[in-house]
Design a protein that fits this description.
By secondary structure, the protein is mostly helical. 65% of the residues lie in helices and 0% in strands. The protein has 10 helices and no strands. The radius of gyration is 18 Å and the shape is globular. 46% of the residues are buried.
Length: 252
């Protein structure tokens, strides 16, 4: 779950004013839109915390007004929330609700992908969202969901593959694991095997390599296990950062 879990690594928390709180931080343009919404999004995804997800959606709506130049990135996050709502509707036996939310998610991803600026996190968010949820989609759209994941991870690999070994563990782990898994799910067996070998080399000694070793030893488990988000999000990073800055300001 990390570009989701690489914007979902490259999207780091940056300094905020000492008097600020997470709820009033939206106006501080030194904080990226990713930093401002991702923790609430992930709280929804990982813990079914709908109040946090709803707060993320409200903040996205506010940020769309405040930072129109970031519209593609914000649309991608909003679409990630819509896909999650679609999955919940599907699992609750609500096909009409599923179709509505899923169509909203796909439309948002498509608009974000067409943008030529303000889109630095779009591929990561789109690929990461689908890597997390494609296996939970209805069978009729599951393959297309994984294709969307693969296309976005392939784009990330094209942009970052040459320098992958220089990137932080989390970032390279999410790019490689997402690319490997989406290649496997879309029937690109040889490509998946090649990227799996790269994971074993580049990510040796990390949580990503542990499951990659299991995939290598027993390829049959690949269809039912998830390589991504092995080093995933610690909650409360924004609050902790603000608190640390308050203490620093007081000490100064």
């Amino acid at each position: 779950m990390r570009m989701l879990c690489g914007v979902l690594a490259a999207l780091v928390v940056i300094a905020v004013p000492a008097a600020q709180s997470p709820d009033d931080a939206l106006s501080d343009t030194r904080l990226s839109v990713h930093t401002l919404v991702r923790e609430d999004i992930f709280a929804g995804w990982r813990s079914d915390n709908m109040s946090r997800l709803e707060r993320a959606e409200r903040n996205i709506a506010r940020l769309l007004e405040q930072r129109p130049q970031e519209r593609p990135n914000l649309l991608a996050w909003r679409s990630g929330a819509a896909v999650y709502r679609a999955v919940l509707a599907h699992e609750a036996g609500q096909p009409n609700e599923f179709a509505r939310h899923y169509a909203d998610g796909l439309a948002g991803f498509a608009e974000a992908a067409r943008a030529t600026s303000g889109n630095g996190g779009v591929a990561a968010i789109t690929g990461g969202t689908m890597a997390v949820f494609a296996d939970r989609l209805p069978e009729s759209v599951r393959a297309a969901g994984w294709t969307l994941a693969y296309d976005n991870y392939a784009q990330l690999w094209k942009e970052q593959g040459a320098d992958i070994e220089k990137l932080p563990v989390h970032h390279k782990g999410e790019v490689l694991s997402g690319l490997t898994q989406s290649a496997q799910r879309t029937g690109r067996t040889e490509e998946a095997a090649r990227h799996l070998d790269t994971m074993l080399t580049v990510l040796a000694g990390t949580p990503y390599a542990s499951l990659a070793e299991q995939w290598k030893a027993d390829p049959a488990i690949a269809a039912t296990t998830n390589l991504t988000c092995r080093n995933c999000h610690t909650p409360g990073r924004l609050e902790s950062r603000i608190d640390a800055l308050k203490k620093k300001a007081a000490a100064d």
